[in-house]
């Protein structure tokens, strides 16, 4: 078989996988920036399409048809305007400086190296380029190298790389926009279940119970919180994210993940309120903490983590 002839110990060694991670980190930067904008355009366009039915609007809002026809016409023009915009996706258009529109050349786009060579400034207008870009590339590279070291140079390690890459993208998108797109959480959940069914990750029963329990545990906390405090503490994206983590890591990892992410979330939340004057009412996204908890669970491993928690839970 073709797969058997590949020298995995070289191609999936920490160094090679680390370099691969730098490139994936560069791709994640694009996804983190563009996916929310792409989805926003898609949603606005879909909503506009629904508002072109003047008769339906007249019935629903009990308004005279003449009035809703005017509205439908305006919305229709709006929809046409969105359709006439140039294509905006992950692969195209090419990356540009947001300040001067300078199109990045291939060597300026190199992960980590490009940013370092430019000294963190746009080659054309010298506007500073956020440190976040090289940082995400570095984190992804280090994560991939650690996975190779932790799970060995074997094909299933690539699955874990995909899992971690999706988690990094989700954490950053949640931080930026306070939402976790279904376009990432749901495929991640299904991929976790399929990987378990193929015997590549955790046993399938643990993955299935993990996915269901992951969703329901946060869903229950959400409703309890809503009943007691009369406001929402997190969103449905968080439930789907924990369901995906349960599918990948198995149900025994759920409690450690929830405890870790709540503890870190509480500490950071209190610090933000105390030191940064962050209002109590301003929502703090929970996704990044869940991702942090999930990554610790993945890298530390189940026996060590449960032993550690057992120590503290008595
Ligand atoms: Zn520029």
From TrEMBL:
Superkingdom of origin: Bacteria
Record field: catalytic activity: Typically cleaves a -Gly-|-Phe- bond to release an N-terminal, basic peptide of 5-8 residues from type IV prepilin, and then N-methylates the new N-terminal amino group, the methyl donor being S-adenosyl-L-methionine
Subcellular location: Cell inner membrane; Cell membrane
Transmembrane segments: 12-32, 157-175, 208-225, 246-275, 287-313
Enzyme Commission code: 2.1.1.-, 3.4.23.43
Ranges of residues in domain Prepilin type IV endopeptidase peptidase: 163-270
Alphabetized GO MF terms: hydrolase activity
InterPro entries, sorted: Peptidase_A24A_bac, Prepilin_IV_endopep_pep, Prepilin_pept_A24_N, Prepilin_peptidase/N-MTase
Keywords for this protein: Cell inner membrane, Cell membrane, Hydrolase, Membrane, Methyltransferase, Multifunctional enzyme, Protease, Transferase, Transmembrane, Transmembrane helix
Topology of the protein relative to the lipid bilayer: Multi-pass membrane protein
Main location: membrane
Gene3D superfamilies reported in the protein's UniProt record: 1.20.120.1220
Residue stretches making up the Prepilin peptidase A24 N-terminal domain: 19-151
Family named by the database record: Belongs to the peptidase A24 family.
Record's function text: Plays an essential role in type IV pili and type II pseudopili formation by proteolytically removing the leader sequence from substrate proteins and subsequently monomethylating the alpha-amino group of the newly exposed N-terminal phenylalanine.
PANTHER family: PREPILIN LEADER PEPTIDASE_N-METHYLTRANSFERASE-RELATED, TYPE 4 PREPILIN-LIKE PROTEINS LEADER PEPTIDE-PROCESSING ENZYME
Descriptive protein name: Prepilin leader peptidase/N-methyltransferase
Species of origin: Pelomonas margarita
């Amino acid at each position: 078989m073709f797969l058997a002839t590949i020298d995995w110990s070289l191609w999936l060694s920490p160094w090679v996988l680390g370099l691969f991670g730098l490139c994936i980190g560069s791709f994640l930067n694009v996804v983190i920036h563009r996916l929310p904008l792409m989805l926003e355009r898609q949603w606005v366009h879909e909503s506009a399409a629904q508002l072109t039915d003047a008769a339906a609007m007249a019935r629903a809002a009990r308004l005279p048809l003449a009035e809703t026809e005017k509205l439908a016409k305006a919305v229709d023009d709006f929809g046409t305007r969105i359709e006439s915009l140039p294509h905006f996706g992950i692969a195209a258009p090419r990356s540009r400086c947001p300040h001067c529109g300078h199109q990045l050349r291939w060597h300026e786009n190199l992960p980590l190296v490009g940013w370092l060579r430019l000294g963190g400034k746009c080659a054309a207008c010298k506007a500073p380029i956020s440190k976040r870009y090289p940082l995400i590339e570095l984190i992804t590279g280090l994560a991939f190298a650690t996975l190779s070291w932790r799970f060995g140079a074997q094909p299933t390690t690539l699955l874990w790389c995909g899992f971690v890459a999706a988690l990094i993208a989700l954490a950053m998108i949640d931080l930026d926009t306070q939402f976790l797109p279904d376009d990432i959480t749901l495929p991640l959940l299904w991929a976790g279940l399929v990987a378990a069914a193929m015997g590549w990750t955790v046993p399938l029963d643990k993955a299935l119970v993990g996915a269901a329990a992951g969703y329901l545990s946060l869903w229950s906390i959400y409703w309890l919180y809503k009943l007691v405090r009369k406001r929402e503490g997190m969103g449905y994206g968080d439930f789907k994210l924990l369901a995906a983590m349960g599918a990948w890591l198995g149900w025994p990892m759920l409690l450690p993940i929830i405890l870790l992410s709540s503890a870190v979330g509480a500490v950071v939340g209190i610090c933000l309120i105390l030191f940064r004057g962050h209002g109590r009412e301003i929502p703090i996204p929970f996704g990044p903490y869940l991702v942090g908890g999930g990554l610790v669970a993945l890298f530390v491993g189940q026996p060590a983590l449960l032993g550690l928690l057992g120590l503290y839970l008595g």
